Amino acid sequence: MKYKRILLKLSGESLMGDKQFGIDNVRLNSYALQIKEICETGVEVAIVIGGGNIFRGVQAEEGGMDRTHGDYMGMLATMINSMALQSALESNGINTRLQSAIEMKEIAEPYVRRKAVRHLEKGRVVIFGAGTGNPYFTTDSAASLRAIEIEADVILKGTRVDGIYTADPLKDKTATKYDSITFDDVYRKGLQVMDMTAFTLCKENDLPIIVFDMDTPGNLKRLLDGEKVGTIVQN
């Protein structure tokens, strides 16, 4: 395997599948099976999942709600998704631990870095919920921060597109895909990979990001087997 310890970042929207809202159980189970496939090869897996299929703090602010209040509501949405993913993984025989950046002792452990690393070493999948626990930070920032803290080898950003393109491939038919690109080139070209806080954290800590299509079953395993899947961003 190319990487020993990974952090998988999933968007909340991807859990919707073909629905307009909420969680598509077929998509959820597909993700769980892909994660199980790589766990069985001995890769240590940590996961951060967004909450956009349920609630987005930024949208709440546009509607007149206080941004801080909205962001905390968004963190709760990530916990709903984290619990759903935990259930799907465990029903497929994968041991998991859910850690929350906000204390919710009835449903999750508090986030403790040393404990998280120990779980990973024991072969458990660790899901980090509630973002960083702070408003004004996205789940992309949480993914970058947690990946650095647990000394992951790479962030795998699972999306609905198969990599980073020169322009939006859905809007521009002439857009071409990058197999690899540097952090500096992403800055220079103004490409959207992660929000700037998350992206800068990865650049400064020399943590590569691979953007790939998680919706195609088998892609995650192929990527970890060393096949050219998605786009890698590195220094």
Task: Describe this structure as you would to a colleague.
37% of the residues lie in helices and 20% in strands. The chain has 235 residues and is an alpha/beta fold. It has one domain: Carbamate kinase, CATH 3.40.1160.10. The strands form 2 sheets. Strands 4-3-5-2-1-6-10-11-9 form a 9-stranded mixed sheet, sandwiched between helices. A two-stranded antiparallel sheet has the order 7-8. β1, α1 and β2 form a beta-alpha-beta unit. α1 packs across α3 and α5 packs parallel to α7. The longest helix has 25 residues.
Distance between the termini: 22 Å
Uncertain regions: pLDDT < 50 for 5+ in a row?
none
Strand and helix order: EHEHHEEHEHEEEEHHEHE
Overall SS class: alpha/beta
Helical proportion, percent range:
25-40%
- Cα Rg: 17 Å
- Strand line-up in the sheet with most strands: 4-3-5-2-1-6-10-11-9
Major beta-sheet overview: 9 strands, mixed
CATH fold call: Carbamate kinase
Please tell me the overall pLDDT: 94
Strand element count: 11
Task: Give the structure's gist in a few sentences.
This protein is an alpha/beta fold. It is built from 8 helices and 11 strands.
How do the strands and helices of this protein lay out in sequence?
Blueprint: E1 5-10, H1 25-39, E2 44-49, H2 57-62, H3 67-91, E3 96-100, E4 109-110, H4 113-121, E5 125-129, H5 139-149, E6 154-159, E7 164-165, E8 177-178, E9 180-182, H6 183-189, H7 196-204, E10 209-213, H8 219-224, E11 231-234
Parallel strand pairs: 1-2, 1-6, 2-5, 3-4, 3-5, 6-10, 9-11
Antiparallel strand pairs: 7-8, 10-11
Helix pairs in contact: 1-3, 5-7
